[in-house]
Amino acid sequence: MIFRPQRYRTLIGFLAGLFFSLLIAGIVYFYYLNNAYKVAEQEKVLIGKMAVEEYKKNNPTNLVYRIVKDKKSGEVLLDKDITPAELSTSLFPGDAITDPSLAVGKVIRCSVKANTVLTESLLYEEKDYPDDIRLVEYTVLKLPQKLQKSEFIDIRIMFPNGLDYIVLSKKQVIDLQKPEGNQNSIIWFQAGEEEILRMASAIVDASLVEGTVLYAVPYIAPDIQDEAIQTYPSNPEVQKLISENPNIVNKAVTELEIRNR
Question: Which top CATH class is 61-128?
Answer without folding.
Answer: alpha beta
